[in-house]
């Protein structure tokens, strides 16, 4: 049996052998053929599984023949299922979800009953260490968290709730398990939810970022949330606790914007491989004070203490790589990754992300 590394070497050779610009990472290879019309080929390797795509069907056929001549392998045809992701391709666009995996989780942890929840997390309850609470089975708690984290690959709606619950894996209590069970109840009512990527929509890179100042009750650190779009298509999202304690809301927003900027710059590089050069990528957040900090090249007494690693956003604002814009809180999509909301606001944000529950005949 050939090693995955051999497949990777051949995939590199396939790209380089065509004397075309090629970008090689550990698992992603991209080729751009410069002819009358640009043609793109991309292959991704996951151990011994390979998925590939091209804007020219002939490139896919050629690559298939080369791989079959070198390796003993089978072709599965058009991508419909991969690593737990279900992919539905239609003339109007692509729909991605993990409904089968969701149902497997509910069955595994015995959540197949009739009860469900309208949102993944309550707005009136905040988790803390709960030192006086009754401890629960750590292995079971971690197993549920691990399953939910994998599900966030297509379910940004549970990202924040799952990440908050994941903070208590070392010493979970009944209150923490109760919060996790609510996520499962929410999934019980929304097993088919997924992301819709319409065809022929815009391709402009935009980002939204937000923070929840001192939201963590354990150490008063803030939570950063961000999401990035290509046109109206959600392509990246995150929710994570900041590494520092912010002294103000503006500082927390500034730190969140710096983290979002890092992701945007990485995406800018990736898009350049496809021939898309982007400048002044807009980043939207709802703190005019944080925007002023990023736009001011001079440090003053209220910002000198901020770690230098977050100030790199100033440099990229000056160079024109990114541009910061104020957005009203009601239109801040990044809110979904920093806090819990009531049902109306929750589903309003989901619609802006492009999440939907497909019809039965989809």
UniProtKB/TrEMBL annotation:
InterPro entries found in the cross-reference section: DNA/RNA_pol_sf (IPR043502), RVT_2 (IPR013103)
Entry protein name: Reverse transcriptase Ty1/copia-type domain-containing protein
Residues in Reverse transcriptase Ty1/copia-type domain copies: 45-122
Organism for this UniProt entry: Centaurea solstitialis (yellow star-thistle)
Pfam families in the record: RVT_2
């Amino acid at each position: 049996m050939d090693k995955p590394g051999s497949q990777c070497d051949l995939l590199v050779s396939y790209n380089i052998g065509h004397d075309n610009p090629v970008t090689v990472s550990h698992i992603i290879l991209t080729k751009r053929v410069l002819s009358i019309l640009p043609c793109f080929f991309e292959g991704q390797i996951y151990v011994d599984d390979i998925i590939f795509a091209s804007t020219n069907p002939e490139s896919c056929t050629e690559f298939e023949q080369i791989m079959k001549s070198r390796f003993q392998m089978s072709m599965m045809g058009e991508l419909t299922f991969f690593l737990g992701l279900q992919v539905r391709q239609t003339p109007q666009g692509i729909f991605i979800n993990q409904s089968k995996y969701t149902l497997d989780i509910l069955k595994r942890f015995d959540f197949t009953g009739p009860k469900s929840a309208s949102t993944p997390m309550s707005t009136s309850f905040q988790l803390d260490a709960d030192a006086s609470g009754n401890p629960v089975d750590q292995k079971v708690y971690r197993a549920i968290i691990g399953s939910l984290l994998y599900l966030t690959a297509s379910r940004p709606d549970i990202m924040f709730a799952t990440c908050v619950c994941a903070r208590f894996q070392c010493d979970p209590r009944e209150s923490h398990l109760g919060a996790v069970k609510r996520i499962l109840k929410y999934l019980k009512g929304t097993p088919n939810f997924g992301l819709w990527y319409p065809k022929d929509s815009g391709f402009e890179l935009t980002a939204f970022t937000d923070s929840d100042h001192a939201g963590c009750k354990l150490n008063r650190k803030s939570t950063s949330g961000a999401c990035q779009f290509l046109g109206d298509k959600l392509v990246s999202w995150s929710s994570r606790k900041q590494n520092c304690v912010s002294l103000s809301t503006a500082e927390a927003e500034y730190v969140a914007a710096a983290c979002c900027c890092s992701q945007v710059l990485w995406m800018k590089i990736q898009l350049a491989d496809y021939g898309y050069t982007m400048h002044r990528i807009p980043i939207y957040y709802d703190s005019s004070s944080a925007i002023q900090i990023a736009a001011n090249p001079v440090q003053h007494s209220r910002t000198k203490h901020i770690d230098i690693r977050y100030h790199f956003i100033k440099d990229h604002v000056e160079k024109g790589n990114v541009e910061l814009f104020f957005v009203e809180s009601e239109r801040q999509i990044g809110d979904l990754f920093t806090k819990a909301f009531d049902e109306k606001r929750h589903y309003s944000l989901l619609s802006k992300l492009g999440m939907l529950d497909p019809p039965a005949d989809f």
